[in-house]
Amino acid sequence: MLQRTILRASRQQAARQIRPFAPPRQPLNVTRATATPAIRWYSDAPPAAKEGEAGEKKEEEAPAANSEAVQLKEQLGKKDKEIVDLKDKYLRSVADFRNLQERTKREIQGAKDFAIQRFARDLVESVDNLDRALGTVPEDKLKGDNTDLIALHDGLKMTDSILINTLKKHGLERFDPSDVGEKFDPNIHEAVFQAPQPDKEDGICFHTQQKGFKLNGRVLRPAKVGVVKNA
């Protein structure tokens, strides 16, 4: 027993002398706790395949965007043309409506002014007869003792003046070119004959064969006159 105990002690001592030369073992828990964590580096650049796909997508999206812009421009151009056409039509319609209003107003006024034109044409013949009746009485007989003739003449003259004033209120006027020595105007006069008059210049109306009439400024019947021609 003693030998065995001595042998064990010698072995243990030999083992203790050999252990310092062996690399010391670290406990498992210590290595895990104190070990430096591994650092991983990640690349920011996408993979080569993905870059190609993104470029293709951009190239596909660019023509699509351009085509949409072109379509929008075409639509805007069409709308602008429609606006211009509608504005032109609107202005034309407004101008046509205003012209229609003015034309209608003139036609209505003309209808009012010349509604009695046919009646006036028939009436001027009676006025002419009354004027001829006044002209058939010589002036020397109106100065005599024939009171009946003088009264009749005065009555006819008064009737003629009242009738002319009444017709004038409705736009019918009688004019005598020879009273004022008017210049011959083919628009309102009708030359019946020409005769020399040394004391008057050429083209003057010196004699009125039939008096003229105007209805609201328009010639209803031209005056028949004699015109001076000295040459």
Automatic annotation (TrEMBL):
<comment type="function">
    <text>Essential component of the PAM complex, a complex required for the translocation of transit peptide-containing proteins from the inner membrane into the mitochondrial matrix in an ATP-dependent manner.</text>
</comment>
<feature type="compositionally biased region" description="Basic and acidic residues">
    <location>
        <begin position="50"/>
        <end position="61"/>
    </location>
</feature>
<dbReference type="GO" id="GO:0051082">
    <property type="term" value="F:unfolded protein binding"/>
</dbReference>
<comment type="similarity">
    <text>Belongs to the GrpE family.</text>
</comment>
<dbReference type="InterPro" id="IPR009012">
    <property type="entry name" value="GrpE_head"/>
</dbReference>
<dbReference type="InterPro" id="IPR013805">
    <property type="entry name" value="GrpE_CC"/>
</dbReference>
<keyword id="KW-0143">Chaperone</keyword>
<keyword id="KW-0496">Mitochondrion</keyword>
<feature type="compositionally biased region" description="Low complexity">
    <location>
        <begin position="8"/>
        <end position="17"/>
    </location>
</feature>
<dbReference type="GO" id="GO:0042803">
    <property type="term" value="F:protein homodimerization activity"/>
</dbReference>
<protein>
    <recommendedName>
        <fullName>GrpE protein homolog</fullName>
    </recommendedName>
</protein>
<dbReference type="GO" id="GO:0000774">
    <property type="term" value="F:adenyl-nucleotide exchange factor activity"/>
</dbReference>
<dbReference type="GO" id="GO:0006457">
    <property type="term" value="P:protein folding"/>
</dbReference>
<dbReference type="GO" id="GO:0001405">
    <property type="term" value="C:PAM complex, Tim23 associated import motor"/>
</dbReference>
<dbReference type="Pfam" id="PF01025">
    <property type="entry name" value="GrpE"/>
</dbReference>
<dbReference type="InterPro" id="IPR000740">
    <property type="entry name" value="GrpE"/>
</dbReference>
<feature type="region of interest" description="Disordered">
    <location>
        <begin position="1"/>
        <end position="69"/>
    </location>
</feature>
<dbReference type="GO" id="GO:0030150">
    <property type="term" value="P:protein import into mitochondrial matrix"/>
</dbReference>
<dbReference type="GO" id="GO:0051087">
    <property type="term" value="F:protein-folding chaperone binding"/>
</dbReference>
